[in-house]
Amino acid sequence: MSTPADLSVIDVETAQKGRRITADYIADALRGAIVSGQFADGAELNQVELAARFGVSRVPVREALRQLQAEGLVDSQAHRRVRVRGTTPARLVEIFALRGLIEGWLVEQAVPHIDQATIVTARAINERLRTESDHPAWLELNREFHRLLFSPSGAETAAELLEPLRQRSERYTRLWSRGNGVHRPAETTAEHDEILRLIEAGDAAGARKATEEHVRHTCEAVLAAGRKSAQ
Asked: Which residues on adjacent β-strands are paired with residue 82?
C-alpha cells in the first residue's frame, strides 16, 4: 500500500509567481518537490488533495501530472492513482549513461565557442564549490557550472533532452546525500579543473571524454550511497 505524499512541503505561493498557466505552476511545484527528494519513491499524489492544496479544480492538476509522467517523474496506475516513480540501480545507471553522453557531446560542441571570460567565470564557480558545505546549494552551483559550459554549444534540443535526465538523477543525489558519500567536493572540483584545462587547450574530444567520466564517477558515488542508505 502506498503512502500519501505530504503536500504541506509544496510552496504554493512561490510556484504561482510569474505563472499564467495553472497546470504549469502546479507541475513546477510538484517537480521541485520530487527532484529535491521531499516525496519518497511510491508516494501517492492524490488529485483531490492536490486540487485543494492549490485551490483549483482537478483539470489543471491532471494536466500537471501528465506533464510529470511524460518526464518520467511519476507513474499513473489503476483508478487514476498517481505515484512518485521509483527506480532501480540498473535504471539509474541507464539514466546517468544517457546523461553523460549528452553532456559530453554538449561540451564538445561548445569548446570552439567558449571564450576566456567564460573559463574565468567557470573557475570562480568551481572555487565556490570547493568550500560550499550545504549540499542543496552545492548542487545548484554545480548545475550553474555545467550550464555555463553547455550554453555556448547553442544545441537547444540536446539541452532539452538533458534536463529531465538531470532531474531524475539529481533526485537520488539529494535523497541519498546525507552521510553517504555523495557530497564529494574535492573529487568533483578536481574533475572540473581537468575539463576546464582541456577546454582551454582547445581539446574538444578530450573535454568530452573527461565530462563523460565525470558523470560516470557521480553515478558510482550515488549508487554506493544508495546501497548505504538501504542498510
From this structure: 76
* Residue burial 128-163, b: 16+ Cβ < 10 Å; e: rest: ebeebeeeeebbeebeebbebbbebbebeebbeebe
The closest of 72, 71, 57, 73 to 23, measured between CA atoms, is 57
- CA dist 90 and 201 (Å) reads 36
| In contact, 7 and 55? CB cutoff 8 Å | no
Residue 39 or residue 10, greater confidence = 39
Give 141's pLDDT tier (boundaries 50, 70, 90).
Answer: very high
For residues 9-35, b (16+ Cβ closer than 10 Å) or e, as one string?
ebeeeebeeeeeebbebbbbbbbbbbb
Closest CA to 30 of 2, 64, 3: 64
CB 125 within 8 Å of CB 144: yes
The predicted-structure confidence for 13-56, as pLDDT tens digits, reads as follows 655 555 557 899 899 999 988 988 888 888 999 999 999 999 99
Interatomic CA distance for residues 219 and 229, integer angstroms? 15
DSSP letter for 16, please.
H
